[in-house]
Automatic annotation (TrEMBL):
<dbReference type="GO" id="GO:0016491">
    <property type="term" value="F:oxidoreductase activity"/>
</dbReference>
<dbReference type="InterPro" id="IPR013149">
    <property type="entry name" value="ADH-like_C"/>
</dbReference>
<dbReference type="Pfam" id="PF08240">
    <property type="entry name" value="ADH_N"/>
</dbReference>
<feature type="domain" description="Enoyl reductase (ER)">
    <location>
        <begin position="13"/>
        <end position="320"/>
    </location>
</feature>
<dbReference type="InterPro" id="IPR052711">
    <property type="entry name" value="Zinc_ADH-like"/>
</dbReference>
<dbReference type="InterPro" id="IPR011032">
    <property type="entry name" value="GroES-like_sf"/>
</dbReference>
<dbReference type="InterPro" id="IPR013154">
    <property type="entry name" value="ADH-like_N"/>
</dbReference>
<dbReference type="InterPro" id="IPR020843">
    <property type="entry name" value="ER"/>
</dbReference>
<protein>
    <submittedName>
        <fullName>D-arabinose 1-dehydrogenase-like Zn-dependent alcohol dehydrogenase</fullName>
    </submittedName>
</protein>
<dbReference type="InterPro" id="IPR036291">
    <property type="entry name" value="NAD(P)-bd_dom_sf"/>
</dbReference>
<dbReference type="Pfam" id="PF00107">
    <property type="entry name" value="ADH_zinc_N"/>
</dbReference>
Length: 322
């Protein structure tokens, strides 16, 4: 079968390592199911792999693509939870399994016509979501869902600040927070993206780093270095800053006086549990919530799709269909 594969590592030019090649059809191992892939959405995780973060050259080639929607051999339309982990090893929480990995590193990924995945990772796709929309859910959307409602415990009527207008996680957070009755404020670098995010439902948009009219209850930050100090300045006393990414750098300066005197909670968040993916899909189904898709690419153009993600110009999710 045809597959988009990481063939080599390059820290400076990760997309150069993406090749479309013929690989053997996967076989389902014990506890696994085969899924015919209908759509895959891209995440930075694959770009980190192509840069050699978390993988060594000996692990290559590996089929890329961790967010899959497709159909099982018995005709079930599914979304695949992208975390490969054992809840028991994590004391009942798969996110705490010390050996957890993701599809496309722990196992071969989904940028192909067929993928073998753990059967427990299969979740029913609501009929109301297209395969392209459903493929956006397992990583970026699930991460945004958990940041907002589990780690950030945001409630209707509260104000949330989302740092970064156009990101996959950021656009998901804006859409979900709006659907849940929050007041949503967003920062963004470009006027075009700020306008687009307003159309997604943001109540107010600001330039990156701008002073806000008042402090917010919860901050959603996946940017890191470029927004961190602004996040801490923008949250109200007793509020929460939730962090799930560091696109602009992971090493930051923190004013500890502000942190403890203002009783600010800083929460790390990574991915989400399978049951949270079920809840997220139910929310999308019930309320008509849909991901914003930046572009859909054919498998043969997987490198072009990764270029789009790496460029920083995408607004919403980049999707590939085999
Ligand atoms: N922990 C997890 O489970 C998890 C899951 C998914 C993603 N992530 C991480 O979260 C991060 C975002 O992922 P994504 O898929 O949303 O990426 P993305 O679609 O490429 O978005 C990147 C975001 O970062 C903002 N940004 C980048 N550089 C910036 C700078 N110098 N100043 C201000 N804003 C900047 C962009 O803002 P503009 O729109 O204004 O340009 C955009 O919102 C990545 O680091 C990824 O690895 C983590």
């Amino acid at each position: 079968m045809r597959a988009a594969v990481a063939t080599r590592i390059s820290a400076d030019d990760p997309v150069a390592g993406v090749e479309i090649v013929d690989v053997p059809e996967p076989e389902a191992g014990p506890g696994q199911a085969l899924v015919t892939v209908e759509a895959v959405s891209l995440n930075h995780h694959d770009l980190w792999t192509l840069r050699g973060v978390g993988v060594s050259e000996e692990r290559l080639p590996v089929v890329l693509g961790s967010d899959v929607a497709g159909v099982t051999a018995d005709g079930r339309e599914v979304v695949v939870h992208s975390l490969v982990a054992d809840p028991e090893r994590g004391g009942g929480d798969e996110l705490l399994d010390p050996r957890r990995g993701m599809l496309a590193d722990a196992l071969q990924g989904g940028l192909a016509t067929t993928v073998a995945v753990p059967a427990r990772n299969l979740v029913d796709k609501p009929a109301s979501l297209s395969f392209e929309e459903a493929a956006c859910m397992p990583t970026a959307w699930l991460t945004a869902y958990r940041m907002l409602f589990v780690r950030g415990a945001a409630r209707p009527g509260q104000t949330v600040l989302v740092q970064g207008a156009g990101g996959g996680v950021a656009t998901a957070a804006v859409t979900l927070a709006t659907a849940a009755g929050l007041r949503v404020w967003v920062t963004g670098r470009s006027p075009e993206k700020r306008e687009k995010v307003r159309a997604l439902g943001a109540d107010a948009v600001f330039e990156t780093g701008a002073r806000l009219p008042e402090r917010v209850d919860v901050v959603i930050d996946t940017v890191g270095h470029a927004t961190w100090e602004h996040s801490l300045r923008s949250v109200r006393p007793g509020g929460t800053v939730v962090v799930a990414g560091a696109t602009a750098g992971a090493v930051v300066k923190t004013d500890l006086f502000r942190l403890f005197l203002q009783q600010i909670t800083v929460c790390g968040s990574a991915m989400g549990r399978r049951e949270e993916l079920v809840d997220l899909l139910a929310l999308c189904d019930a309320r008509g919530v849909r991901p914003h898709i930046d572009s859909v690419h054919a498998l043969e153009d997987a490198a072009g799709a990764f270029e789009r993600l790496a460029s920083g110009h995408a607004f919403g999710k980049v999707v590939v269909t085999p």
